[in-house]
UniProtKB/TrEMBL annotation:
Family: Belongs to the NlpA lipoprotein family.
Keywords, ordered alphabetically: Lipoprotein, Membrane, Palmitate, Signal, Transmembrane, Transmembrane helix
Its membrane topology: Lipid-anchor
Transmembrane spans: 6-24
Source species: Leuconostoc carnosum (strain JB16)
Protein name, UniProt field: NLPA lipoprotein
Keyword Signal among record annotations: yes
Amino acid sequence: MSKKIWVSVIAIIVIIIGIVGYTVKGYSQKSNVITLGSVTSDADIWRHLAKSDEAKKLNLNIQVKEFTDGLTLNKATAEGQVDVNAFQSYSYFQAFNKDSKDGKLAALGTTYLEPLGIYSTKYKSVRDIPDGATIAIARDLADEARGLKLLEDAGLIALDKDVGALDGLEKIKSNSHHFKFKEIDDTTGGRLLHDNGVDAVLISNSVSQAAGLNVLKDAIYYEHINNHTSSNVNIIVTAAKNKNNKTYKKLVTLYRAKASQQYIDKKYHGTKTEVIKPISYLKGE
């Protein structure tokens, strides 16, 4: 075989090796991508974290997929269409696992408590709200149950001991102040603050921020991190079969990184209160 033919053969072999190596590398990178499902502001947070230096240091390749419906996202996670999700409270997670026929989820770690607040333009304290006043509360079951617990924590009502994450007004055991409750779409809470027929409104943090409010400054009462609110702490979850996945657990480390928290605190004005607690804390253990 001539020298020219040998050179050509060697060149072809080198090209083939390069193509195969590039393909394998590309496949490897793609296979290491973590698909993280999220919603609204949480999706924005994770899009930022995915591009951060901290993610690179942890060798995390994150692709964020935004959903508009939490139930659909949980089903997609349980079925493996999404690797991990970050959007829900521990109580929502528990309720899903209890009723799910699409597989179970496992909690990887805690992220934050986003306080639900009681707002009023008429009264400066929950103690000032008069008997017979009208209080607006979200009709969505998860939000309604959480709102009722906040009202109980504020000393305004008493609930049955067995009140669950998806229970509603029927679980009010005592309403000694004879409050009237107006069930609303949570997104209208900001507008109802100026409704003469409403004395106080329970508004989620995402909605209050959209209305230009800061729960830590403008609410007359809001959730704090304690035993009464532990079930409202947000978590990162995955399918139950992946509960020991070390790479997925790095997402908790990424979220808690100093630079990550500085970004979140600045962007959301301190209203996403970081919670560094083991999952056992949420279980009441």
